[in-house]
Amino acid sequence: MPVLSARALLLDMDGTLVNSDAVVERIWRRWAERHGLSGDEVMQVVHGRQGHASMAVLLPDRPMERNLADNARMLAEETADLDGVVPVPGAPEFVASLVAQGVPHALVTSADVPLSTARMAAAGLPLPQVRITAESVGASKPDPEGFLKGAAELGVAPQECLVFEDSGAGIEAGRSAGMRVVGVGARAGVHGPDVVVRDLRQVRVEVVRDGVRIHVG
Fold first, then answer.
1. Rounded to an integer, what distance in angstroms lies between the CA atom of residue 128 and that of residue 11?
2. Are 75 and 112 in contact (CB under 8 A)?
């Protein structure tokens, strides 16, 4: 069973701690239809990125101000639509173990504050004290800014952080930040994380003198 050492954990939200796929599918497929795009192709792009960044990939000739306005409307829709939002299997126990053992950790998500607060609450998960959200960064994943800011706020060097991510954009961001990455779920495996788990039931956290050991498998 692989064992990874770290001093802090940086946790993505959607697809990693919270299963929000039902909402994401509903809202982005409606958006795809309005813009004459293939829903399946859109779904290959949107996971892990901020909405306006996904739109820039999908509609490269559209002015960014229109993407930002569209993104604001969609964030409001997503925040109001919590039907089907549930924890990823093992997430409640995993997060509880971090809190109980005092493991330094941060949420690093492409969602904004209202959306991340609503989805974590809907999934019954406590919000970490350190949260890097869409408002915290100037660039969306796959840019590493969010993970680097999370490490800085925790006071831990990037190479001593371990990222938990499900999406290609997020895994790329973690690796670009100089961090090792645990891929969570079916989407993660094709994007080259250091290890992959089916869900968080396959992860156990052990506190040791110089940090934490993450037992995977």
1. 10
2. yes
| String of DSSP letters for 32-70 | HHHTT--HHHHHHHHTTS-HHHHHHHHSTTS-HHHHHHH
**List 12, 70, 112, 143, catalytic entry:** 12
Radius of gyration of the chain (CA): 17
Tokens found for residue 189: 């495996």
Question: Known catalytic residue: 199?
Answer: no
Angle between helix axes 64-80 and 51-58 (nearest 10 degrees) is 130
pTM of the model: 0.92
Q: Per-residue pLDDT tens for 138-174? A: 999 999 999 999 999 999 999 999 999 999 999 999 9
Taking residue 202's Cβ as centre, other Cβ atoms within 10 Å add up to 18
CA distance linking residue 167 with residue 127, whole number of Å? 21
Q: Find where tokens 């796929």 sit.
A: 21
Active site residue 14: yes
Specify the 3-state DSSP secondary structure of 162.
strand
Helix, strand, or coil here: 141? coil
| DSSP code, position 145 | H
